[in-house]
Amino acid sequence: MNRWVVNRVGLLNFWYYQNQIFELADGRMLLRGTNGSGKSLTMQSLFPVLFDGNTNANRLDSFGSSDRKMEDYLLGEKGVSDRDEGTGYLFLEVKREEREEYLTIGIGMHASRGGRLTKWFFAIENNRRVGIDIELYEEIRKDEIAPLTKKKLINRLVGGGRVYDRQRDYKQFVNERIFGFEDIEQFDELIALLINLRSPKLSKEFRPSVIYGILRGSLPKLKDDELLTLSKTIEQLDGHRERLEDLSNEVRELAKFTKTYQRWQEELTGQVSGKWLQLAGEQKELGATSQRIAKSLESDRQQLADSQLKLSDNQVQLAALEQSIQELNQHEGMNLVQRGQELQEQLADIQRRLLKNHDQLSRKQEQLSRQQEQLEQQERDKELYLVDLKDLLLDNEQYLDYLRLAELDKVYAEKMQGEISREEYDYWQAEVQKKKEHFQDVLEKLRQLAHLKNQFANLSREVATIQQQLDECDRDMRQWQQTRQGEIEKWKEGIELWASKASFSIAEKRFSKLFYRMDQLLEEDLREELVLAPIRESYEEARSQNQASMVPLRSRLTDIEEQQQETEEAIKEWQSQKMPEPTRNQTRLANRQQLAKDILYRSFYQSVDFLESVEQGERDNLEGALYASGILDGLISEEGLSLADDLQILPRPKFFASTLADYLCVNDQIEPALQPIVADILQSITVDEVDPELPAIFRNGSYEIANLKGAMAEGYHASYIGAASQERYRQEMILELQKELASLTEEYSKIEDQLSVKERLQDQMHEDYHDCPKGEQVYQSIKYLDEIKLRRQAKLEQFTEKQAEAQHVEQDLITAKISLHDLTSQTGLALEETVYQDAIRYSDNYQANLRDAYRNYEIIKKMDPNLINSAQTVADLADEVRLCFIEENEGKGEEQRQQRLVAENLKQQQLVHVEELQAQLSAARNEQRERRDTEEQLRQALLDLSNSRTKKEMELSSVTEKLTVTSFKETYWRRLLEKELYQVVADQTDLKKIALEKKRDENFNKLRGLENNVLTQFGYIGEQLGSYQPQLLNAVGIDLSAEEEAQLEEFAQYNHYKQPRFSADGQAHTAVDLLDKLTGHQITLRDLLKKDDEELFKSIILESVGKILRSRIEQAMKWVEQMNQLLQSQKNSSGLSLSIQWKPVPSASDQDLGTSKLVELLQKPTEILSEADREAVSRHFQEKVYYAQEQLVNSEDDNSTLFQAIAQALDYRDWFEFEMKFKRANEGYRPQVLSDRKFNQFSGGEKAVAMYLPLFAAVYSRYRDAGRDCPKVITLDEAFAGIDDDNIAELFKACEQLGFNYVMNSQALFGDYPTVSSLMIYELLRPQNINLVTPIRYYWDGHKKHFMLEESHE
């Protein structure tokens, strides 16, 4: 398997690294260093940051702290680093294990101190490598680099990479191209597990129970697409059971609300009962007090009247006494008779006047009585009209919350009860009519809004259905994309294998280009010929090169044939005594042929011969020097020659010097005319002497001509000067030509063989090229993907169309809502049709009341003048009656005085003697004194009685007022209580008995709190029970005017409340009524659907989910067995051996089969299951699903769904439990269960072993869900701290066996263990916390540790 391995990681301008690349050995690296050297920081900044691009602070610290931030790493520690702004890069390179294929991923960052971190993400493809083919920086000047900006990076990666703005897209790419998890959630779960594993010393809170939880989480869950059949079935079932579930939710929510509402209602009734009982008691007490005071006041009134009569009588008698005394003092005997007559006459006159006045008084009283009755009748009539008017106006007050005419109503209602004009009344009616028309407009818009809502709901459902279909297409696309990726990798491997055997090679760059184009097939549809173009180019190039290499060979064969013929002819010529000639070019030959036509000339070598005294060595050197200098073949002539690529030797003889004449002589066979010239020329060339005007030849084979020096070729033999030389040269040439001919023949044969090989290679290349693996499966998967894409595109267009339509309707809906809002912003009414229908009806009622009220107003206004006249007549008559009473009382007093005077006069007339008059006077004076004393006593008594009466009247008035108020309150509180009890109780005894049972202390805050609970709960159920048109109506217990309510004080707080109303089947219902109705429906539907559920579980669960569960459980059991074998095979210094089991949990109920029995049944083919087995499995899963539904109902998590609950109920991982056992070597007991308590008794090394190995297995399990090419990466902070070397070696061995790529750090660990096949070790040096980190690199080859020089990457 040619999987990815982590090959290199790098940091550019990050922390205290300027440009550092860390190489891994087969995916393994260890960072060493002291505290503060940056080993943990380096590892945590790279892993798992580069996997998912998440740079959150809590990911950068093994302890989960948020103190370390990526910005600080990028800029360096404040106070240590002088950077306040910077750009940096992190990257990771992966490589195929068995081929030179590379992929680089990374993150670019920019930060300013105190600012925010900006990130971008990149991938480098096309086999380009950072630091080799591409750099992430630009060199500003020598030894100074600047990291690329995002824009420059984009430009640099054109055609061979990509840049992402969003972390999500980057993470998706990394998962798809490197890790290969089917969904991103699995990738996230892996990263979470890697972070847990990375923790230094694995946190002291780790214990077996925690490890079991991690192991459980590492088991693959049931995937969404695996549950798709069940999901669709559940959706189908939900479709059938939707009403039942809705009813369950509605009943549950309505029951909660009803309970809350009943608590409030009970509290309201209790407090009203208590208040009424209190007022009834006060009323009774005040009534008794009023009667007592009234009785006492009546007694005082009677005493006061008696005292007033006594006082009046005493005053009359006293006045008569005073007059009598005066008369006695003025007594004149004879005048008494005359005086008596006068008094009698005066008395008669007074009596006549009294009689006349009494008759007049009777007539006036009768007239006043009649007039008062008439006035009272008129007032009663007016009062009836006025009461009716007030009632009508008061009745209108209930509509003011809808009409929002409170101010107008208040002003004009007061006017109507006083004075209102016709214009004002018409204006009032017009305003109400405007309101009514406004309500009608709103109602029409509400109906339009309801239509739009229905239309939008239907479209939303259609959009949701299409969205589900799109999701299914996306799922199918993901599956086929994974298939495509796998087929591409198989294609790559096939091509690699083919290329290793192919007869022509493919250059590394072309291989990279080929694989890059194959990778491009993951995202775009390239034609196969374009993908394979690098192979075709390599084939054509190799074929062309091979053909090109054959051309010179064939040409060479032709040349050889020609050379053979020429050589054979040359041999024949040499054999026929041919004179040797120096090699001449064509120009020289042509020139000499032209000269020979008209001019006599000879070559120098033809004109001379060696002297016999000259030895062969000197001959070779001299001729060699002449040949090298060109003199040997130079022309000698008497005339000046026309030269073309040739030379002529001119004579300039020098005598008395060493010249060629001492070694050469003139050839006597040449033309005589030339012989003297030749002799002079021999004298013109010096030997072993330098003359600046003449050429010099040296016996060592060199020459010098002016400032030109040269020398002969080594091993030169004289061949041209002299007959012997020429003959020897001829024989040598014949031999050489014969050898050359033999060589040509041999070369000809070899070339023929080479051509034969190349022709066979040509055929093999052609065959190999056509045998190159094709991408049929890749393009088949692409075809399926394209079909899915087309289907998805069609669905997407349909989705877009429907969504656009829905958005258009939604926009219309929003517009309608805005219009409604603008139209109703001042209305304050709920935007419901029924509300505005009520509002229109209330407007009609209001207008009708207003018309009736105004009619009464007009009648009252017509009655007012008569009432005024009648009242004035009554007032006048009353004044007259009062005057008559006064006159009558005065007359009676005058009559009494006059009668006394008459009586006294008679007594005086009877007196005969003076003594009798004196006695009479004395008695009168005594009686006068007594009566004056009596008057004073009576006045004091009257004053006391008057004060007492005033006090008691005030007290009675106060009690009466209190009684009136209390009675007024008691009446309404009683009526309110009767209404709350939903009955009118005639007998107060019964009402009192009920009130005593229900009464509670008055506590309005408590009642308000309960009411707020009702409102809150209603706000929630308003959404849950929207189909029942829930409304909170403004309810009034007793209809009262605002003035009356104000008199009742806190009564209004209890009289006004919100009353819930629901609508079902066209009828209004209370909460209790609706709850009873829905509960009945729920029971009926549950019974009807139970049978369908049973059939569903029998067919669906067994056929779909059962198979998946069986597969998952078998895989898990196999994995646990592998993990168990791995644990048992591990050796450690303490002799501790571990084992692990995955045990079934016992059944939880009678319907629960238990894991063992369930697995046994699931492992059987469904066709051989008996009906009893099917029934058992069905009941088991029904129990699970019903439990899930019950948990969902009782769950406080509003985000839970039924599908999630069922998926949790069917989570096979909860049907088993992990159990680890341990045993020490040389201890006789059987393996013991590793409990938390036993674990705590382990040594530090034993604890570490017991923690690491299971977690390694857990990570390995998580990687099993990844793609087959995935690098199994783990990271360990402070790796294996506190463990002895033997156990560390075993843990490294486990890492090797599990095929992990790992990056570890440690203070002391070198990792040079025999169980480690290869490891790159970096020791990080940062003395005294300087702002520079120096890595020292070592390589462990499995046997020996090597120090390696760090390559510069700057």
From TrEMBL:
Alphabetically list the UniProt keywords: Coiled coil
Give the transmembrane region(s): none
Which stretches does UniProt call biased (Polar residues)? 574-585
Q: Which InterPro entries match?
A: CHP02680, P-loop_NTPase
**Annotated segments matching region Disordered:** 562-585
- Which spans of this chain does the record mark as coiled coil? 230-267, 311-388, 429-483, 734-761, 907-944
**SUPFAM superfamilies, from UniProt?**
P-loop containing nucleoside triphosphate hydrolases
NCBIfam families reported in the protein's UniProt record: TIGR02680 family protein
Q: What is this protein called?
A: TIGR02680 family protein
